[in-house]
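Support request from a user on the community tier.

User writes: "When I paste my structure tokens into the form, the page sometimes reloads and wipes my input. The last time it worked, I copied everything first. Here is what I submitted, just in case something in the input itself triggers the reload:"
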């Protein structure tokens, strides 16, 4: 069984200088040799003055290197560092999957890993489902409003939003079943006290999620680990027990991911 959730829409505004900067980076990475600004501008059909300003900005950020003698540009150390960080994160996620899979099998749930994206969204970066015939599959890359779901409650609980800002953000979320703002605030307080949170059918009808924070060395939430299951699959004291076990799993994951 596959459960789909809403994702954020594509951006409606294209920022041309950003697009051109990305094109320049791709071009330099693919051509295999340093190039002059005029040649880059001509091949990519970018205004020479605009191209020069973008190149100068990218060089200042170490994304590309400028040879002041030959007046040429090539990929910089910043790109290599960024690529290394991305590969490292992928490797860390791979190392976390066996722990997530074991938990999923033992409790017959789907274990998901979320991280904050910008200030208003969370994104799913990893998912491990139990091997049972009836299970919940979630697609990597899906995005949710920041306040939504058990994971969203954990992020929201530590954002320090004032009442007005919280109400505004809360009003923008489409809940699967009615949820009063006061009840949501109470759930955030419980999440702070227990260090785990529950979403009981508000993200998606018929689905319950229990999440715990995966904290970095400074104590900030780097990821959240969430157990996703059908409503009624775990009830009463079993929910509290699963919440406690999710906290233990999150602590183990912090050593692998942070």
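"...and here is what came back when it finally went through:"
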């Amino acid at each position: 069984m596959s459960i789909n959730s809403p994702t954020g829409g594509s951006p409606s505004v294209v920022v041309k200088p950003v697009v051109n900067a990305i094109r320049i980076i791709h071009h330099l990475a693919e051509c295999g040799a340093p190039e002059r600004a005029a040649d880059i501008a001509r091949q990519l059909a970018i205004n020479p003055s605009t191209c020069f300003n973008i190149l100068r900005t990218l060089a200042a950020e170490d994304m590309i290197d400028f040879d002041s003698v030959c007046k040429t540009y090539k990929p910089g150390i910043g790109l290599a560092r960024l690529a290394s960080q991305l590969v490292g994160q992928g490797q860390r996620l791979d190392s976390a999957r066996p722990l997530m899979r074991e938990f999923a099998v033992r409790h017959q749930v789907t274990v998901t890993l979320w991280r904050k994206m910008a200030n208003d969204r969370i994104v799913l970066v990893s998912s491990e489902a139990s091997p049972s015939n009836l299970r919940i599959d979630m697609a990597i890359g899906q995005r949710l409003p920041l306040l939504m779901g058990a994971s969203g409650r954990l992020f929201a609980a530590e954002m320090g939003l004032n009442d007005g800002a919280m109400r505004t953000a809360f009003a923008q979320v489409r809940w699967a079943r009615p949820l009063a703002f006061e009840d949501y605030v109470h759930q955030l307080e419980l999440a702070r006290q227990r260090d785990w949170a529950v979403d009981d059918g508000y993200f998606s009808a018929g689905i319950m999620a229990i999440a715990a924070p995966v904290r970095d060395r400074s104590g900030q939430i780097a990821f959240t680990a969430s157990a996703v299951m059908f409503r009624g699959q775990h009830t009463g004291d079993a929910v509290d027990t699963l919440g406690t076990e999710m906290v233990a799993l999150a602590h183990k994951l912090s050593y692998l991911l942070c």
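Agent notes: The reload is a front-end session timeout and is unrelated to the input. Helices lie at 16-31, 37-44, 48-60, 77-107, 149-157, 163-171, 181-194, 237-257. The longest helix spans residues 77-107. Escalated to web team.
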